[in-house]
Design goal:
Blueprint lengths: L18 H13 L7 H7 L8 H16 L3 E3 L9 E8 L10 E8 L2 E9 L7 H25 L8 E5 L2 H8 L11 H12 L3 E5 L16 H10 L2 E3 L5
Parallel strand pairs: 2-5, 5-6
Antiparallel strand pairs: 1-7, 2-3, 3-4
Helix pairs in contact: 4-6
């Protein structure tokens, strides 16, 4: 997606017939099961199914052009990967120009293999950037806990806490502080959830610089160089490229 443009519901003339738009976005939604690199773009485009505009259709065509340029790209699962969970959680505060809701993005790896990812608009409006980041962190923590349960059913013992990276030092400080301050009472449930996972040894929180925050690709449009760097970090490879 174009980094400087943020799609909104009334940004241009509405399409007279939205059938084609709906069909293309519906097919792209299925493709996100194996292509996390288009997950954010499709999440954005799917919000305008009821009344798409000309600019929305142009954005769909841009995604299709990108897919056409790399048709064989997909997830790669190495055989020598270790069985250790790690993840990245991030958010784009007030990223939606229509509702001012934030966008959550997270990705979870089992060893070097990407096994879970999500780009989703948050249900409520966050009053600060740390609050939006904390909600993203809580969602990622729940996903990691679910993966722990799944691996237990498969009789896979991990034996150590999953590493969860965040580029917000204030969020990590809130998670490690047992005292709930006035400014954190409205996210008290998320605070308790994260602290419980940390205390039980399910996750371990670590800070990561923003330029190395892999989940950024799931929260906002990025410049091409940074976009392709994160695509590589997600473990996406083209079957047409020699190893």
């Amino acid at each position: 997606m174009v980094q400087t443009n943020k799609l909104s519901k009334d940004d241009s003339e509405a399409l007279k017939d939205n059938t084609q738009y709906r069909k293309m976005v519906g097919k792209l939604l299925y493709l996100t099961f194996t292509r996390p690199d288009i997950c954010f773009a499709v999440q954005q485009l799917s919000q305008f199914l009821d009344k798409p505009t000309i600019l929305h259709l142009q954005a769909v065509h841009r995604v299709l052009m990108y897919i056409k340029s790399c048709p064989g790209q997909g997830l790669f699962f190495p055989t020598d990967s270790n069985l250790k969970l790690s993840g990245f959680a991030d958010s784009d505060w007030a990223g939606c120009p229509d509702t001012r809701k934030s966008v959550t993005g997270f990705c979870v790896f089992l060893g070097n293999a990407l096994v879970s990812w999500k780009s989703k608009k948050q249900n409520t409006i966050s009053r600060s950037s740390p609050e939006a980041e904390y909600r993203a962190l809580a969602l990622a923590a729940c996903e990691i806990q679910w993966l722990y349960y799944l691996l237990e059913v498969l009789e896979v013992q991990l034996g150590e806490a999953a590493i969860l990276f965040s580029d917000s030092k204030s969020v990590i400080a809130i998670a490690e502080n047992p005292v709930l301050h006035e400014r954190t009472k409205h996210i008290e449930i998320d605070c308790h959830l994260i602290r419980e996972k940390v205390q039980r040894g399910v996750i371990k929180l670590l800070h990561v610089p923003t330029e190395h925050q892999t989940a950024d690709i799931l929260t906002k449009p990025l410049q091409p160089l940074l976009f392709h760097r994160f695509v590589s970090k997600l473990g996406l490879h083209s079957m047409y490229t020699l190893a």
